[in-house]
Amino acid sequence: MDWRLCLVLLLTALTCVVRGQDDQMPPKMISTFNNEYYYPRDSILTEATINCKAQNGQIKYVWKRNGVVVPNSQFVSIDGSTGTLKFVKMQNADYGTYQCFATNDYGTSLSKPFKVKESRLGSFPAGDPEEVRCKEFEHCKIQCRDKPTCLPDSQCRVEWKIGEGTKTNVEINKRVGVDGNGDLHFLWTNTNDWNKLQYRCGVWQEQRKMLVVGSETTLRIEASTSVPEREPISVYKENGKAMYGGKGVLRCMFSGYPAPDVEWISPTKEVIKDTNDKYAISDFGRVLTILQAEPEYEGFYICKGKGKVESGPQRVFFNVTSAPILTGVNQMRDEIVPVGKKATFYCKAESLPNEEPPTFPIWKKNGVDLVIDGGKYIISENSKVLQVTDVQKGSDTGAYQCMSENSEGVLLKEAILKVIDPITIRERPLGSYKIVPGDVLNLAVVADTDPSLALQYKWIFTDRQGNEKEIESNEYWKISWPNNNNLTIDVRQVTDPGVVFSLTGDYKLKIYHNYDQKIINVTIETDIITTVAPQSPIVQQANLNFIIYIAVAVAFLIIVIIVVFCLVRRNQGGVYSVDKKEVAAGHDPEKELLEHGFQDLSRADDDRIPNYPVYDYEDEKNIIDDDDDSLGEYEGDLELNKFNEDGSFIGLYANKKDKKTPKSESDV
């Protein structure tokens, strides 16, 4: 079969297994929700959709408002298959606390409850204009009186207008600003601020795209005869508050002539710069924004007005708050537990420092309050720990929720409990066996578990010395593939008692998956008595292979050295030196050459000279063909005493030596 087809089939099978597991799980909510949603009343809405989404299988969605199921209506649309809640036109009855319920055959998952509120903008009451008198170069404030309700705050802002209509805004700059209450501040005034036109406070609601104006004020400026320098003076400051992870704002405003700068100092005594991702400074230094509130950012911040002189420090407090949060590890963690075991859930809800403590957790299953009686459910540690005892596959599988609240909000966390079939051993080997050379022992195991999970097997061997290791197939151990559930000990070809003894010990099979395991122990013994220290068969095989590799390498190296030596010796040039041999035999080669007429021959150790005789190839016809004839050049019969013991020829030198030597002496 083509390997590509095999790969496709394998991936398809794995996908089916994963989907099968998901289909057997209770739902798990994956959508996140705001604490509050704002929509205007009696208006046609185009972007008023809230989505609820959960995972695991085929899911049906239900929305509840104030604990009652929300039906489809002319102005509210519910899609039970996708979880979509859509408002077409808000009526007064449509505002309230909403919650999404996602249900399949194995349980129900909940969203956290959230509020749907009315997006509002009121109006200024009718009234007569007021007059405000200020001195030139001094601070002056115009109050936004009777400011109407505007919700939500994030969609509202104050805009000051001057003159008739709503198109002319008061310019906001370093000298002129608006505080958190909406009041207009002139940090120092000049006569141009009095142009006989009325100042009016306006409130803009972004979601409704609506502006209302009111609080008409006439400003009169008393001219100054001199231009004094005025030190910075705090005229407004505002504490800040933010939810954990959200944005928070602090405000400080200083009067003075000229208008002072504003410096911010953190609780850790560091001067804050508008150059990082932690803070943002805006409104000409008068607003400090903490971009992502963390508990450690809580504390007193310092603001200072800085001109030619510096103002006294002003303290503003930043409060980081939150609904209850879970602390510690393993909080509301999904559990997959075999039948008959115990499941434990932890919901250790705490408030942030300096906040009111949360309520004790309330436990639910599939959105319904648990009845804590009869021993099935056990709560402890002020209801922060829930135990589900003796779990059963049908009745206890589901989604479990814990709820706790404080002054800032509600915590709802949930965890899934899936009850599975335990690992069951259908066939297993005996507890002990004895082996001798020639045996084959098969340790076979048959086990099964929940259909959504796959079993794994691991064989472990502990020898007589207590050394433990995982078993791998080798000469004596054979593990079945691919399941590894059978182990064969094969000593049919073994005659060495030490090998058999090395296979004796404790065998352990671990049958497991992520959520359960079983152990089978088997002892292997032998009646063979051996004095040889047993070794692991794997180690023996490894040592034998290592020795063979070393021996082959050494032999190869020796052969290479011999071949190289022979080649070097063969290629060495030069002539055989006769002089040393002759002198050692008591002869004088120089003198004898002169006496016997070999003067035309060069010495063996002489360099070639110009008069060196050249060989004439025409003389080849005079060469004697066989070895015997060639020896005949030396006076006929071959006499062995004319050769040295190393085979060098001494010829007539031997006769000459005999003539000089007395007959009474022995030949040397």
Question: What would you note in describing this structure?
Answer:
This protein is mostly beta strands. The protein has 6 domains: 23-118, Sandwich (Immunoglobulin-like), CATH 2.60.40.10; 123-321, Immunoglobulin-like (Sandwich); 325-416, Immunoglobulin-like (Sandwich), CATH 2.60.40.10; 424-535, Immunoglobulins (Immunoglobulin-like, Sandwich), CATH 2.60.40; 540-573; 579-660, no CATH class. Helix content is 13%, strand content 36%. Strands 2, 5, 6, 9, 10 and 11 form a 6-stranded mixed sheet that branches. The protein has a 5-stranded mixed sheet with strand order 30-38-37-33-34, with no helix packed on it. Strands 40-48-47-43-44 form a 5-stranded mixed sheet, with no helix packed on it. A hairpin with a 2-residue loop joins strand 33 (362-365) and strand 34 (368-369). The longest helix is centred in the C-terminal third of the chain and has 34 residues, at 537-570. The radius of gyration is 53 Å and the shape is elongated. It starts with a helix and ends in an 8-residue tail after the last helix. InterPro entries: Ig-like_dom, Ig-like_dom_sf, Ig-like_fold, Ig_I-set, Ig_sub, Ig_sub2, Neurofascin/L1/NrCAM_C. Residues 27-111, 228-303, 324-418 form the Ig-like domain.
Beta strand count: 48
Net shape: elongated
Number of helices: 7
Largest beta-sheet details: 6 strands, mixed
CATH topology of the largest domain: Immunoglobulin-like
CATH H level of the largest domain: which superfamily?
Immunoglobulins
Mind telling me the CATH class of the largest domain?
Answer: Mainly Beta
Computed structural class = mainly beta
* Count of domain modules: 6
**Overall pLDDT score:** 84
Low-confidence sequence ranges: 5-21, 536-544, 598-643, 645-668
Distance between the termini: 90 Å
Work out the strand percent: 35-45%
Which CATH architecture of the largest domain?
Answer: Sandwich
